[in-house]
Every structure is written in C-alpha cells, then in structure tokens.
Amino acid sequence: MNTHVLLLSDDELLSEFLRIDLAGLSIGLETAGSWDDAAVRLLRHDIRALVVDVAIPLLQSLQRIRTVRMLNRSLVIVVIASETEEASGVAAVRAGANSYLVKSAVPRELVRHLTDVPVAATPSTGATSLGRVIFERHAFRIVIDGTPVALSPREVSLLGLLILLHGRPVSKQQIQDAWMLAPSGWAGDRRRGNSVQVYVHRLRSKLAGTQLTIRTLRARGYCLELNSVRPHEVVPIR
To answer: What residues does the OmpR/PhoB-type domain cover (predicted)?
Structure first.
C-alpha cells in the first residue's frame, strides 16, 4: 500500500471500519489522536488525504487546516461533523478543507467520497510564502528576499513541522519521529542525542534576520514564531 489516508479522530469504531474499507482499495490508514501527532505524520509524501473529526477541538482544527492547506495544496482534506455540527463543517471548508460529511455517513460513503474528490491537476510545488521567506520544501531550500539558501532534508522536515505547529511547543521526540517517518532518503543519518539541537542551530542561522524565529522552550522543546507576518502574507505558491 503506497497510498495512505490519515484519520484525525479518537473514534476507534470509525477507525476500524474505515481501515477495513480502505484496505479493499489497497489504501492504508494511519490514525492520530491529536494535531501534534498528525503534524508528524503529514510530513510523509504518501499521505493522500486527511480526514478530520470536528470532535477534535474546533478552533485548533480550523487553524491547523489553514496551515496544512498553506503547505500542501494537493492534499485532500475531508471533515466529519455530526448533524448538529453542520456550521463547524462549513467553517472547516472555508478554512481550506475540500468538503465535509455528516458523521452518520457510513465509512463506505466516506471511502466513496474520498475517491471522488479530484486531486489537483497540477501537482503542488511545495512552495509557501511566509512574508519575506519562501519555503520550497520540494526543492530543499528557502528563498530570502530572492536569495536561495539550501536546506538539508532534516532541516526541511524540521521547518515543515515547526510551521505546521507554529505557536505551539514542538518536542525533541516529535522532531525525531518526523525524521524517522520522512520519505526514504530524507532521514539522513540516524544520530540521536544532541542532533536535534544541532539542526535547530543550523536552521536558526539560516533564518537569521527574517521574520521567522525559533524559540527554545525549556523542558518543552521549540516554537516557531511568525513575527510581523500578516495572514495575507502567508500563502501557498503552485
């Protein structure tokens, strides 16, 4: 199974039924119980679709859906809402989801819906503009005021995770997990210990003087701050 769907939900019954139906289509299912866990898994290239249960805290979900869409325009995002949460489903679509389904829909209907949602005709370039910085993850670089700066695979994975969870602490364990789940050839060396600090230091140096700041949070990890970057300045580029 080279294609996977990521389900963000704590509904174990839904997860099991969906896993069985997707297996019949040779599609694997991964599950996450929180956005922190989902962010690590979304860095994998073989995640075709993200299914979000709005029972997960709504305001956080809307913010994360916007960020995920910013980083990946070709990812299919489907939101599941109960009959009484229709407004939440509509809000999620406005935030960047492709569509939403009422939760009473059987998993088989969700599978049909996922396979019917068209994938973008033009593959995403993986480029995101963040104020003066353009993050080109597929090209392994950032561009600062027109000047390209190369990034190692681990730096790309680290920056992508920090952007997905910007404003929230990202632990060393999450970063190491993201490296281990990265596509083949991305993970580089397998050193542990102080390697996280080393890569954070390198990335900080490359972002110096920009609006992106990586803060160290004692005993909690790291946090990316988008200083003076206005919402309209954070946009995906095809």
So the answer is: 125-226
